Amino acid sequence: MKIAIAGTGYVGLSNAVILSQHHEVVALDINAEKVALINDRVSPIVDPELSDYLANNHLDLRATTDPADAYADADVVVIATPTDYDTETNFFDTSSVEKVLTDVLAHAPEAVVVIKSTIPVGFTERLRGEHPGATVLFSPEFLREGRALYDNLHPSRIIVGDTGEHGRLVADLLLEGAVDKEVPVLLTGPTEAEAIKLFANTYLAMRVAYFNELDTYAATRGLDTRQIIEGVGLDPRIGAHYNNPSFGYGGYCLPKDTRQLLANYGDVPQTLITAIVDANTTRMDFIAADIAERHPRRVGIYRLIMKAGSDNFRASSIQGVMSRLQARGTEILIHEPALTEATFQGARVVRDLDQFTELSDVIIANRLDDAARSFGDKLYTRDLYGRD
């Protein structure tokens, strides 16, 4: 079976790898450098399992920048292109998904098209209405940045928004590529699958926001956050997981998915979803104010990345704190090895860690590592457990 993958980010590349263990896979991307790396069996993404599988496993996988090459004679096409949240329309920008579908229908009209990009509730049904001859379905991803392939090899669940033969085909392909075989498989309607994705991520955002607001309360009242969290977590219905305070939720998914779910509510009564979205702003406001109370002349930002083991800092919460401090007139220095430029969003990038430490009055770190622990009294973090 020939499978084409449109997009080679976390979702696209991890799916390309698991599917190419048993099928011919052609990955399409507009970035020629990423295509070259994949063809050289080098991961363009920081992900240990992706790097290992590309380098050491037999995979029937190649990459291209040519849509005709990718889609011609494809039996299945997986769309994994970005769908950033558009603040003007209050919806995901799905133009890349729609462009791919148009190209696929031109080159492989009989292909089963599987949308893996995150999309608004109701989007798949709209596409089906606009393209009545096409086979289009949605299958949500539940991946962690930096562990994308691991989470596809060991999926918590496989959900496909189609209850017919095409839904079963896609579920079987995903299960075939996984290491774990005793995986819950749920075939649903397309709109239900879209809702599952957004509600799952919004619940995770709610949990992050909850423990962050617990930490805000404890910090304001001079209480021991760790003791409170550990006591709360002893209730087995709550548990001692996903409870480490941070500067806020961020990354590829949670900020945009919560806002999209809120937009999808429309005139449906709710208060909680709005609170989850607003809570992240409130948390970053508190963190910036708490740092400002120390009256630093110069604040060092140690790593822009959202979480350990990732090279992504898109929509990271530490950037929200940084912009708030800049608005107060605080000078900002950044130490981020992933940056190649001399400045980032108006702040000076300092590559030498010793110089960065010496120049900074306060150094803030969303997540701790060995280097961050060496900053001593200059360090400001809310990370209690040294994990995400």
From TrEMBL:
Q: Which GO terms describe its molecular function?
A: NAD binding; UDP-glucose 6-dehydrogenase activity
EC code(s) of this entry: 1.1.1.22
Where, in this chain's numbering, is NAD(+) bound? D29, K34, T83, T118, E145, K256, R314
Q: Which residues bind substrate?
A: F142, L143, R144, E145, K197, Y242, N243, N244, P245, S246, G250, M306, K307, D388
Q: Which reaction does it catalyse?
A: UDP-alpha-D-glucose + 2 NAD(+) + H2O = UDP-alpha-D-glucuronate + 2 NADH + 3 H(+)
What Pfam families does the database record attribute to this sequence?
UDPG_MGDP_dh, UDPG_MGDP_dh_C, UDPG_MGDP_dh_N
Biological or metabolic pathway of the protein: Nucleotide-sugar biosynthesis; UDP-alpha-D-glucuronate biosynthesis; UDP-alpha-D-glucuronate from UDP-alpha-D-glucose: step 1/1
Catalytic residues, chain numbering: C253 (nucleophile)
UniProt domain UDP-glucose/GDP-mannose dehydrogenase C-terminal: residue ranges: 300-387
UniProt KW keywords: NAD, Oxidoreductase
Q: InterPro entries, from UniProt?
A: 6-PGluconate_DH-like_C_sf (IPR008927), 6PGD_dom2 (IPR013328), NAD(P)-bd_dom_sf (IPR036291), UDP-Glc/GDP-Man (IPR017476), UDP-Glc/GDP-Man_DH_C (IPR014027), UDP-Glc/GDP-Man_DH_C_sf (IPR036220), UDP-Glc/GDP-Man_DH_dimer (IPR014026), UDP-Glc/GDP-Man_DH_N (IPR001732)
Give GO BP annotations, semicolon-separated.
polysaccharide biosynthetic process
Answer whether the UniProt record assigns the keyword Magnesium to this protein: no
Q: Which family does it belong to?
A: Belongs to the UDP-glucose/GDP-mannose dehydrogenase family.
The protein's name: UDP-glucose 6-dehydrogenase
Q: Which organism is it from?
A: Ornithinimicrobium tianjinense
Q: What is the organism lineage in this UniProt record?
A: Bacteria, Bacillati, Actinomycetota, Actinomycetes, Micrococcales
